[in-house]
Amino acid sequence: MVNYRYLGNSGLKVSEITYGNWVTHGSQVDDAAAVQTVHAALDAGITTFDTADTYANQAAEVVLGRALSGQRREGLEIFTKCYFPVGAKGPNDTGLSRKHIFESINGSLKRLGTDYVDLYQAHRFDYETPLEETFQAFADIVRQGKALYIGVSEWTAEQLRAGHALAQDLGVQLISNQPQYSMLWRVIEERVVPTSEELGISQIVWSPMAQGVLTGKYLPGQPVPEGSRATDQRSGARFIQDFLRDDLLTAVQRLKPIAADAGLTMPQLAIAWVLQNPNVAAALVGASRPEQLADTVKASGVTLDADTLAAIDAALADTVNRDPEHTYTVSPKTRLS
């Protein structure tokens, strides 16, 4: 079964392996298979589910809501997000304005079939809306009981500090950030993580397997496997391209004996690695088939010893991206429409 961790400086516990449906529900996976996979996650002890209104242009929330229908709501932690264009994608169907936040949360609750979400997240930083407006709207949503806690995704250290100060002034809890993080992508370690530790903010990390590259299935000098994420534009193929360099894929192959010595599969090693960071509350995993979860959940509770961690660093060497400047490039400088 899956272990639990506290999310930020709060009393909320979440399953340290959290189910996310970014590129699966409503697009890559048919609804029946999606429901089966969610039920497999529940059977494995996962109680925390992460989605967003923008995933499959709102369809992913609908599928997740149906899949969780009939479950005891108090036994679940449901997360969603807003920022990116949704619906008709008009000028106010995006961003973190008060108008869009309220329309987004109301739509998300309806699609998810719930009265509240446990965590409501700003999917990116909005440079075009005053931060005070955004956090006043978040505070009002919390006071109305539509969300219990507030989180963000891919915010810089400075943005986290400013948002945390406003949240404190307004009497609400900003407890999480959702960045990309893996053995290969460590850009949050220098600035975001220390700031988060100071402020009582946890990381809920996405792509702990580097878009599937850390499974070892992509081989240097070989075509990408048929049916893999790299071949499917609907499943985020563009996000994997930077990881498909031969030098990087060669380095990843050197992880196979390290995983074997630790008694782990490659996916388990990747997930266990991010969970060694004490500022990480949860690793987001997706699945297109129930049996995939049976493997990944076994990473919960695994402790990697110092020799294993050192061997991983040596194997990956200079293929690892640690540049903190990348944290400043994720949020668009203007709203997308």
TrEMBL record:
Cited InterPro entries: AKR, K_chnl_volt-dep_bsu_KCNAB-rel, NAD(P)_OxRdtase_dom_sf, NADP_OxRdtase_dom
Residues annotated as domain NADP-dependent oxidoreductase: 16-316
Family matches, as Gene3D superfamilies: NADP-dependent oxidoreductase domain (3.20.20.100)
UniProt keyword annotations, A-Z: NADP, Oxidoreductase
Residues making up the signal peptide according to the UniProt record: none
Family as reported in the entry's similarity comment: Belongs to the shaker potassium channel beta subunit family.
Protein name: Aldo/keto reductase family protein
The organism of origin for this protein: Leucobacter albus
Upper taxonomic lineage: Bacteria, Bacillati, Actinomycetota, Actinomycetes, Micrococcales
